[in-house]
C-alpha cells in the first residue's frame, strides 16, 4: 500500500511540474519520506543528495531558460512577472481540459498571452510585444521540458531504488 501511495505521489509531482508548480520538490520530499520510512537502506544519504542535486539543477536550468528568452527580447520586468502568473493559471486551466498535454499547452498559452498583453501595454509596440511573446513561449517550453525530464529521472530513480531492489530480493 505504501508503494502505491509513493507511485501516486511521484506521478502527481510530475504533473505538477508540467503546470509550473513545485512538482520536483514534491518528488524530492517523497524520496526523503520513503527513505526515512525504510531506514535509509535503499535510498541512502548519497542517493538523496544526488536527487537533491537533480532537483536543484532542474530549477536552475528552467530559470536560466526563461530568463535567457526574456532578456534576449529585452522584455520589461512586469512582463516577467506576468509570464510567471499567466503560466501557472494557464497550466491549471489546461490541466482541467486535458491532463498533461493540456498542462503544457495551457502554461505556454498563458505565458504567451500575458507576456504579449503586458509588453504591449508597457511598450505600445505590437511587433515588440509579439517578439517578446514568441521568445517567452520558446524559453518556457524549453524550461518546462528540462524540468519535466528531471522529474522523470528523479521518479524513475526513486522507483528503481525502492521497488526494483525489493523485487530483486
Helix content: over 70%
- The termini sit apart by 18 Å
Round the mean pLDDT to the nearest integer and report it.
86
Please outline the major beta sheet.
none
Strand content: under 5%
Count of runs of 4 or more consecutive helical residues = 6
The total tally of domains equals: 1
Rg, Cα atoms, Å: 18 Å
| SSE pattern | HHHHHH
Low-confidence stretches: none
Quick one: how many beta strands? 0
General form: elongated
What structural class is derived from the secondary structure elements? mainly alpha
Description of the structure:
This protein is mostly helical. It has one domain (2-167). 86% of the residues lie in helices and 0% in strands. It has six helices and no strands. The chain has helices at residues 2-18, 23-37, 45-72, 77-97, 101-123, 126-167. The longest helix is centred in the last third of the chain and has 42 residues, at 126-167. The protein is elongated, with a radius of gyration of 18 Å. The mean pLDDT is 86.
Question: How do the strands and helices of this protein lay out in sequence?
Answer:
Blueprint: H1 2-18, H2 23-37, H3 45-72, H4 77-97, H5 101-123, H6 126-167
Helix pairs in contact: 1-2, 1-6, 2-3, 2-6, 3-6, 4-5, 5-6
Amino acid at each position: 500500500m505504501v508503494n502505491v501511495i509513493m507511485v501516486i505521489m511521484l506521478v502527481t509531482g510530475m504533473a505538477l511540474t508540467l503546470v509550473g508548480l513545485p512538482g520536483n520538490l514534491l518528488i524530492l520530499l517523497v524520496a526523503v519520506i520513503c527513505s526515512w520510512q525504510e531506514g535509509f537502506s535503499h535510498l541512502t544519504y548519497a542517493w538523496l543528495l544526488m536527487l537533491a542535486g537533480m532537483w536543484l539543477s532542474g530549477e536552475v536550468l528552467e530559470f536560466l531558460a526563461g530568463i535567457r528568452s526574456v532578456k534576449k527580447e529585452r522584455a520589461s520586468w512586469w512582463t516577467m512577472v506576468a509570464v510567471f502568473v499567466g503560466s501557472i493559471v494557464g497550466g491549471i486551466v489546461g490541466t482541467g481540459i486535458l491532463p498533461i498535454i493540456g498542462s503544457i499547452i495551457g502554461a505556454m498559452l498563458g505565458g504567451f498571452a500575458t507576456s504579449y498583453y503586458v509588453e504591449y501595454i508597457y511598450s505600445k509596440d505590437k511587433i515588440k510585444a509579439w517578439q517578446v511573446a514568441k521568445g517567452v513561449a520558446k524559453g518556457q517550453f524549453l524550461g518546462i521540458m528540462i524540468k519535466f525530464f528531471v522529474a522523470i529521472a528523479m521518479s524513475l530513480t526513486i522507483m528503481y531504488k525502492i521497488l526494483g531492489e525489493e523485487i530483486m530480493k
